[in-house]
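Figure 2 data, in text form.
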Amino acid sequence: MKLLTHLTLAASLLAGAAPAIAAAPASLNGSRPNVIFIITDDQGYGDVSAHGSPILQTPNLDRLHREGVRFTDFHVSPTCAPTRSALISGRHEFKNGISHTIYERERLAAGTVTLAEVLRVAGYRTGIFGKWHLGDEAAYRPESRGFDEVFIHGAGGIGQTYPGSCGDAPGNTYFNPAILHNGKFVKTEGYCTDVFFNQAIRWIEGQKKGTPFFAWLATNAPHGPLQVRAEDEARYAGKVPDANTAKFYGMIANIDDNIGRLLARLKELGIENDTLVVFMNDNGGTNGVRVFNAGMRGSKGSPWLGGTRASSLWRWPSRLRPADVGALAAHIDFFPTLSELAGAPLSPKAKAQIEGRSLVPLLADPKAPWAERTLVTQVGRWEPEAKPEEYQYRNCAIRNTRWSLVSIDGGTKPSWQLFDLRSDYGQTKDVAAANPSVVAELSASYDQWWRSARPLLVNEGVKGPRINPFKEMYWAQFGGGPSEDDIRKMDPSFRLGAGKKSRK
């Protein structure tokens, strides 16, 4: 979830019983499973022991890998908010207005039909726990985008503050964070990942039998700052190159423990075989790539495969047979896949919006026909004053099953490099000179995509509020207010150099 930073582009048994052995899933359409979607923040494809990590141990992720359908060439965006917008909309992040993680460019465009809205109309209960990162203002928060239950932190990460609307509650850390729960802050106790899983499990326990649910469980870990429980850091102290990697691996170990706890609770509740659990990471690797990157070039924030390839594990014991699926798939496929499984009707607007493909045929048969496609990655992340056209060919890529065309240093003109992924998945040898027709074809496709996406970058030039909405809500509930230093961090006028003059 990546080649695509911006991709052009998804029988219940008695309690205590063992998972059923999956029969041939001939009728997955409209099967209406419960869905638990787990997405981690800054964990790379290589940060799973089943994917070859030589040090990190993830026994519960390995269980999802062993017992589920595994998409082995699945891509997302190179950074977090863009990936999340594509997952929830079924279309490339740029067409959702999202070209960054801050500067108002992380807000999911108004009017976007979300997966949560579609599932709720289809009779699902919907809940989100953890990271949202698609807009902190009221009109953009999950309760306005189809979620019944909302338990989230603000900004792109716990404790973060940026100019404009993107910022978390004041003073937050990964320990005992203040979390916005259905419009009111609650002061939690414990480590953030444990807190999010605890709340999700409580909500799942409260769901009525016969009513399917959709739980979006998004951890902030292992994203920096690398705040970790001492006992988790100790698991890898002295076993990895530096202390930061030990902290990073410890955060993943804690996630893995919580996944194991969740799976055990599903079995205790007797809903394991009625529940599809999907696991992904949101972008390329970070701290872990220095240890293992699965032979890929690049990491988070790059258009290389190491910036976009993601885990995509789908476990549903009663309906899905464990298998590898090698088809080229992406984050934009998530929406159409789940809507088809749910039997959810799609409005004409939703149908026109979705660019991805349903993965249901591949879940049913890993060898099912899968037409060739191209995926576009555009890292974006230009400064507020910049013009998008100046970055059209900077840090971008377009690929199909065999070829990957990458431009790193371009601007208004490309600097294309071409790689044959059949023989060079590590993207080490530029073969553009030997394949001019391939370069021309993919380049033309990229240009066509840019022309279609550029008018939809609706967040360009938007100036956010003087005070982060999460902080404003927190101070209204508990008292207090911004210091001069808070204002300097939040007020976009300071970012643009206007200083005190703008603070009337």
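Caption note: The CA atoms of residues 393 and 460 lie 18 Å apart.
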